[in-house]
Design brief:
- Helices cover about 50% and strands about 15% of the residues.
- By secondary structure, the protein is an alpha/beta fold.
- An eight-stranded mixed beta sheet has the order 3-2-1-4-5-6-7-8, sandwiched between helices.
- Helix 4 (about 70-80) links the parallel strand 4 (about 60-65) and strand 5 (about 90).
- The longest helix has 29 residues, at about 165-195.
- The protein is elongated.
Length: about 300
């Protein structure tokens, strides 16, 4: 098949590479043309203008967006829609809120443009391992791009149809919320291991747990890799960003009255990681001093 990949960040570029290696014709556009041109040496076809991707493809066109959530994605859709024809397919493979997908699907329907929201997981390892794809939107569009999905996904059950507009990104949102909880549990456990009186080899323990243990996982493999490179993690700051999906998961839990204590706590711990000396911590120390005479540390101690 032929497809345009719009956005060549950490995932978009490798997805384009995987598709070319799978025998597809891939046209690419990136805001910085040099990045698209560089990828051209690997078999993709770079274009300078976003509008050119439409002219380069035969109908029904398939255009896959791998852009940051918000204005970059919406601006690209707004520019492309007037150039597309009935039956063409737009895929948002980024991490947009599912509510936007429902709105976009309805807005594009009068033009006959089919819209898919594709939750995409795999990170920088997807080029070699493949991407897990959770796809929502028109079933006919899903069926049409299935050869592309089969190439992007790992062998076996690497992609699936979730349902109507928004369902793909909703499932991906929950996926990322679970990821928050898993990562927090590993982080807390290894902090306790690191704090003991024994000089434990944390990388070796992570490797050990990946052999027959009920807590084995790919995340644990990555933890082992990180700990081998830097056993004390001294080169890394404890500042942890969140890209939105954890927040959206908690918001939906509130909307549906579903208790998510672990995922919610893991999200709040990411907020805590960005604070060096919190006001709440200072107040706790002050209260302990006031009611019990417990010692407090002066600033700078």
């Amino acid at each position: 098949m032929e497809i345009a990949m719009v956005g060549l960040g950490r995932m978009g570029a490798n997805m384009a590479r995987r598709l070319v290696r799978g025998g597809h014709r891939v046209v690419v556009w990136n805001r910085t043309y040099a990045k698209a041109e560089e990828l051209g040496a690997e078999g993709v076809e770079p274009v300078r203008e976003l509008s050119q991707v439409v002219a380069e493809l035969a109908p029904p066109r398939v255009i896959w967006l791998m852009l940051p959530y918000g204005a970059p994605t919406q601006d690209a859709i707004d520019e492309l829609v007037p150039l597309l024809a009935e039956g063409d397919i737009l895929v948002d493979g980024g991490n947009s809120p599912f509510q936007l997908d429902i709105e976009r699907g309805a807005a594009l329907a009068p033009y006959g443009i089919r819209y898919l929201d594709a939750g995409t997981s795999g990170g920088v390892w997807g080029l070699d391992i493949g991407y897990c794809l959770m796809v929502g939107g028109e079933r006919s569009a899903f069926d049409h791009i299935e050869p592309i999905l089969a190439t992007l996904g790992p062998p076996g059950h690497g992609y699936d149809y979730m349902g109507g507009h928004g369902s793909g990104h909703f499932v991906k949102m929950v996926h990322n919320g679970i990821e928050y909880g898993l990562m927090q549990a590993y982080a807390e456990g290894f902090e306790l291991l690191e704090a003991t009186q024994w000089d434990l080899d944390l990388a070796a323990i992570a490797d050990l747990w990946n052999n027959g243990s009920v807590v084995r996982s790919w995340l644990l493999e990555l933890a082992a890799d990180a700990l081998r490179k830097d056993p004390g993690l001294e080169s890394i700051s404890g500042y942890v960003e969140d890209t939105g999906e954890g927040r959206w998961t908690v918001e939906q839990a509130i909307a549906h009255s579903v208790p998510l204590p672990v995922i919610t706590a893991s999200l709040f711990m990411r907020f805590r990681s960005r604070q060096d000396d919190t006001f709440s911590g200072k107040l706790l120390a002050a209260l302990r001093n006031e009611f019990g005479g417990h010692a407090v540390r002066e600033k700078g101690e």
